[in-house]
Amino acid sequence: MRGAPPVPPAGVTYEQDGPLLRIVGQFRGFVSGPRDLGVDGDALDELIARQRDLFAARGEAVEWKTRSHDTPADLPARLGAAGFVPEERETVLVGRAAELAAGEPVLPDGVSVRRVTADADMHRIAAMESAVWGQDWSRLADDLIGRVAGAPDDVAVYVAEADGEVVCAAWLVFRPGTKFASLWGGSTLAEWRGRGIYRALVAVRAALAVSRAVTYLHVDASDDSAPILRRLGFHAVTTTTPYVWTPQGP
């Protein structure tokens, strides 16, 4: 699941720097590498500094995605020394799509689910996410709009609605050429949690994955989502921690 989807959204470019994939043009930069970077010591420090300095020149933050089984083992420490700060660790989960799609999803009375592609719906999703997290998530709308425009067959965005309000949203990202697809999103307004909406959106996306001959679903899960997903049949395989460098000042 490392690397990037084959078709970048409009305005986004993929660059290779030695062992690293660098994604430029999103709301913040993104860096990922193979399990073994093949460099260590001063050479690794130089590689890290080069990513930081490139995005510093752009005035943008950058995320370096690490996994717990990556080498060299001192990569997190070297990222920290370069000014990268760890965000919350997530659990990487994998489940069989066919098992997760079994049975009809059960939704609360008055709640319906539909797949969306319109720009206006992406902005509604971003507004819901902003309310959930207490932060400005308006950038999410542009990201989803770009994904759908760039590769409409590779992403499926769903909303759960009640009385015309988006109460939960989630999307499925296919990885052509593999047996995997990824689940993203799933944030739910506080007053609608614990009522099966998140589970229903997992089942809906799993069913679509099965229809596309996908064998496995992957999730980078928060501590809130991981227990739910385990109960549904997902299995933990490793952990992942984003290390983020943010420019200071204007």
Q: What is this entry, summarized?
A:
With 250 residues, the chain is an alpha+beta fold.
Commentary on this structure:
- With 250 residues, the protein is of the alpha+beta class.
- It is built from seven helices and twelve strands.
- It has helices at residues 41-58, 75-81, 97-100, 119-133, 139-150, 197-211, 225-232; strands spanning 13-17, 20-24, 29-32, 62-67, 85-86, 90-96, 111-116, 155-162, 165-174, 180-188, 216-221, 235-245.
- Strands 1, 2, 3, 4, 5, 6, 7, 8, 9, 10, 11 and 12 form a twelve-stranded mixed sheet that branches.
- Helix 6 (197-211) links the parallel strand 10 (180-188) and strand 11.
- The chain is globular and about 60 Å long.
- The mean pLDDT is 94.
Based on CA inertia axes, which overall geometry fits? globular
Percentage of residues in DSSP E strands: 25-35%
Kindly, what is the distance between the CA atoms of the first and last residues, rounded to a whole number of angstroms? 35 Å
Major beta sheet summary: 12 strands, mixed
Structural class: alpha+beta
> Number of helical segments?
7
Low-confidence spans: none
SSE arrangement:
Layout lengths: L12 E5 L2 E5 L4 E4 L8 H18 L3 E6 L7 H7 L3 E2 L3 E7 H4 L10 E6 L2 H15 L5 H12 L4 E8 L2 E10 L5 E9 L8 H15 L4 E6 L3 H8 L2 E11 L5
Parallel strand pairs: 3-4, 10-11
Antiparallel strand pairs: 1-2, 2-3, 4-12, 5-12, 6-11, 6-12, 7-8, 8-9, 9-10
Helix pairs in contact: 4-5
